[in-house]
């Protein structure tokens, strides 16, 4: 008769995994921001406690957001026992399924076995309680597939008992319990390991020692370990590898060994260690295979009691707005995984954009900005939604047109929040004062100017998307004065212009002299040397809306043009923002650039001057749908520009609204201030001269 | 004492204009479709009646939708009196205001005077009752500014009466009234003019004669005219020019002339002419100025009693859906006024579009189609709206994402109708069966195939906008089989491909032999020779979704790209539709086209091969945002193409679903059917040969 037949085989309570949802949120973040495409296993930590003996809870191994940190806060806070884990998060569900589970757990078993062989586990028994966590995070759906393993070596293969484990308060007196507790506390304070030795000295009572002392302690009665189990008959999983360690190093002492399954809870304000178990090992059985590499097992069963993965769907339990927020972020961050790791999404997300015009361009620009993660968008428009708008202006629907139409700026801002509740969007119903549009109510207009100036000042990028040339003058001038980045888009019937204005430093009175430059620059133009929308003009903007026929009143365009121009306008902004020089980024031009504007001939394919991870950062993009042609002209700032020249800005800086009022009522004054009038005189006086044709400039 | 002092001066009741809203709708249509930019005066007609004597209504001159027709239906229907009018509709409000009103009415007065001088008005007295209508139609706001003139010659300048006009039933007996009525009816039946003579023959009673008989009828007692006035004391406006006619031709008979103001109504089922007035002219005063060109007046006063224009705002009274319809139409038709008169908008509007995929591309393509006036859009998609969608997919909002998300196809279709109620939009929740996606439920899949085939058959243009290559195979093949135009758009991170598939005739079994051509064509490729999305492939499409990482599962793209590609896709479709050859239009390419695909070198700037009013109609457009480059490669249909080759189509035509089922489960069979497998063998056998590099083909 074998001892097996005469005794009882000891059964161990396996760990049950407990995953805090904070773990998944943190994993999501790590996957997006840190791991990206990598599916290499990473170290994480988990913990268990031995503090719930009377709760009859399963033996929980917990992971949470701290599992990704070196210092696992939950372990310290809850007096838990730290466990080393290995997380392997696959990129696809296929890979998750395809991982060789036996190989994975064997590898971990080998590691434990090696730590036993080397004696490392004797010095640090926490090396014995490892876990594996295999995951696939479907971040699009907030579904997480996972499978835990708690590897345990089948060595010995069986532990045989003579009698049932006994609860400690049935073995020790109250005094003895108290004494043991003190001995343990003393040990824990100095050593802190989850496995220990308990020496019972007839004279001195109990004393605890580190595990490594086993060979030296002949009087040792018990081997103790912090036991996650709360069953009155069974110890928890960690004992298995602990017994393997003892079996390897002290095989001779295993039969007859007493094991203390240390359970240490506080119940009703009272510390209780009496639920700890004492187990007397009668005999052990070893596997028949070679001992040099014991078998390893320990994959957790799922909720159906099968060896298999589990899935948790967090989408239903999460706040929908937060879900939307993460989903939008995720989509953007995916760009960084493989394609553009150097992309700085925060710069884009934190950019405040002011859209002047909430029409076809304004709507599509806002949508493209949102797709790029921009959260702060303000519209300025003074129109109302009309019946022809919704099919072209993508933030409005039929219901916005009824009864005279909703105000556009406000409707557009509301729509952005309906699309994505995280938007900080505002609509300002404001008519932009314009040169040549005679001012009747000066006080009102002065207020409007202030409102516009404040709005520009509070934003980082100003988009000019209005439908007249002259409505772009004031914001162009104010943006130059305030040193803001301006992105300008304008449509023809089947042509488009998308450009950035040369971005200057905010105005300071000293700059007039230093910036005067009239000649063509050599080499690339940096951002602050680039022109604005008005730099090609040799006449001041005036009232162009009077006397326009119906087809001139609205922008009659091929519908596809506005999508193309809006897409390019936002991509140009993002390219500028991603450039290390920002608005001062050098302008790149195409070889096929127009010949009627001043050009700086460069071949981008030959000479890489772009510093933006998104590619070339042109000054302007002109497209011609009729021929599917696109050119990238760059033009220098014009010293006599009516909008951005230091002469004009200086006048505004000095006189403020008084100057503007003059401009609104008499745009010719701009030609005086900017020096254009003198230029006209000069040109008139040389009119009859014979000068070469190529010096002509075409007025845009 | 002058006769003026001894008598009463006759006052005439001016016309009051009455404009049916149908007039404005018709004017809107004429302006948009016919007049366009022209503001030349055009002939219209109006009418008045003499049938409301007892109603005490003003003397109405009516215009309505029939005013633009030669045959004025309302005149005939209501027994009205036709008036010739001249409509001048200006292009701008400024022009409306600036028209010289006096000059305009003088011109019309001259015309009347000339008709008097020439005697034409004697033969046709309706030449005397002319009107002018000056309008400005603000078609964007449905506001119509207008001003009527009823030109009347101040000749004589005064008509003096001895006594008040008398009502006819106070002058004639009942019998005489009856007799007069019969005489008038007889006259009207044969002559029908609004002015006439009434001869009272002591024997024969009353007889009516045309006006031209005045000289011959010595016994003439009365000059009659159909009188729009219902006042018991005053005749209507038409009498003034009638008296001018008589004053010129029969000046001697004016003093003492009896005028019959003919009022002819049916009241309570009884015909009544007794309210007609009889006026005895005592004397006349002529203007002191020269008689050769009498003064003309007659501009209508507005509702405030001032000489000035009126405005009617129809937007509030119109059905909002109809307003939206017209507004959308207007915006498109404005293109035809100046820019593209040859544009055929009906072709576009009547095109039924099937969009496969309701994601980023699907949403923007649908919006661009709507802006072009397309009314019939169907989506096929089997996804649900997820939280990351709305910021990129422009037909969804946050609310569509909650609780697992709405089905995309249906949501997108609903949104189109919210944007524009005139849309005929449908969403079909269908997963497109794909090669290599193993079929588990064959019956279900067969139904899906049939549903897809039916949908393609019922539409004119199929857009391929899905996110995998293999989901495009079945619709590509079916569209080739059914001879539909296919527009394909696909995105990379910062690249895009927009192409049309070569459009064939619907399949007929005879075409296999005739279309076999392997060599490079010389000259431009016409539409049916062009390749499809799969023509560059040398392997069959298979399951590409298995094993894709998160950033490969969704299309990670620069957000601007999808707007650009969607805009181009729709513009390409419209360019094809506008081309006289339609889908068979020759493909044009750019000079900078890619060098890795088979090309047909042509220089569009030198050789105009486009027949589309919208410009070049390329086969494909490939764009690279990184460099802002765009090329227009054209590639020939590949005889061994897995999607569009006659070999594959033939198999489908012969075997139907049995063939497809084989393809879904084993895409390699496509390589057998298409002959690709043999090609592979051929290539393998010549692998070691030394062949020139340029014959290599790069797999797209």
Descriptive account of the structure:
The structure is a homodimer of 700-residue chains. Chain A is of the alpha/beta class. Chain A has three domains: 3-156 and 297-321, 3-Layer(aba) Sandwich (Cytidine Deaminase, domain 2), CATH 3.40.140; 158-293, Cytidine Deaminase, domain 2 (3-Layer(aba) Sandwich), CATH 3.40.140; 342-693, 3-Layer(aba) Sandwich (Rossmann fold), CATH 3.40.50. Chain A has 22 helices and 26 strands. In chain A, the strands form five sheets. In chain A, strands 1, 8, 9, 10, 11, 12, 13 and 16 form an eight-stranded mixed sheet that branches. An eight-stranded mixed sheet of chain A has the order 21-20-19-22-23-24-25-26, with helices on both faces. In chain A, α5 (101-117) packs across α8, α12 (360-371) crosses α18 (559-578) and α15 (473-482) crosses α19 (646-655). Chain A is elongated and about 120 Å long. Mean pLDDT of chain A is 87; it is low at 513-522, 590-609 and 689-700. Chains A, B: It is found in: Cytoplasm; Preautophagosomal structure. Chains A, B: Keywords: Autophagy, Cytoplasm, Protein transport, Transport, Ubl conjugation pathway. Chains A, B: InterPro entries: Atg7, Atg7_N, Atg7_N_1, Atg7_N_2, ThiF/MoeB/HesA, ThiF_NAD_FAD-bd, Ubiquitin-activating_enz.
